[in-house]
Amino acid sequence: METCMIETPLGIAKIIGDNEGISSVSVLNSNEVITHIIPDELQDCVYQLQEYFNGDRNQFNLKLNPQGTDFQKRVWDALEQIPYGKTVSYLELSKQLGDVKAIRAVANANGKNPLWIIVPCHRVIGSDGSLTGYAGGLHRKQWLLEHESPYKQQSLF
């Protein structure tokens, strides 16, 4: 497995993958040394993430290889179907997966998503529209949703 660290507007991102695909993208809460020479297997991922943060990409086209249970992978596949700039609730996601009673299991699988931003778990919100739980921190979830919003507001300050 190859690893690299890149700088993003939300902190240092750690990318792990190999020829089988990208297995993990996570945001770190610590300062790490930025990788200056990106391994070949990770270059496309780095490039696409940079495009996303620059506002030039709204869909990723990468070979992915996340590790998880069959149920987690079903949830992650469903997350990839949430369009850029849109959100769904945990309840809606559970219904899409065919079991409204599985809402807690769906939320748990969502929280274990190993592919930050690429598999857009940040697009799942509470039924009341609230920003609930996010492994990267709610401030990052809010930033990502605002970044993807088709309605841009100017800052008053």
Describe this structure in words.
A 3-stranded antiparallel beta sheet has the order 1-2-3, covered by helices on one side. The protein has helices at 40-54, 70-79, 90-96, 103-111, 138-148, and strands spanning 2-8, 11-18, 21-27, 88-89, 124-125. The model has no long low-confidence stretch (mean pLDDT 92). The N and C termini lie far apart (45 Å). Strand 2 and strand 3 form a beta hairpin. It has 5 helices and 5 strands, in the order E-E-E-H-H-E-H-H-E-H. It has 157 residues and is α+β, with helices and mostly antiparallel strands. The chain is globular. It is 33% helix and 17% strand.
- The mean pLDDT is 92
Please write the string of helix (H) and strand (E) elements. Answer: EEEHHEHHEH
DSSP summary: helix tally: 5
What percentage of amino acids are in beta strands?
A: 15-25%
Order of strands, widest sheet = 1-2-3
Fraction of helical residues: 25-40%
What is the rounded distance between the termini? 45 Å
Number of strands: 5
Whole-angstrom Rg: 16 Å
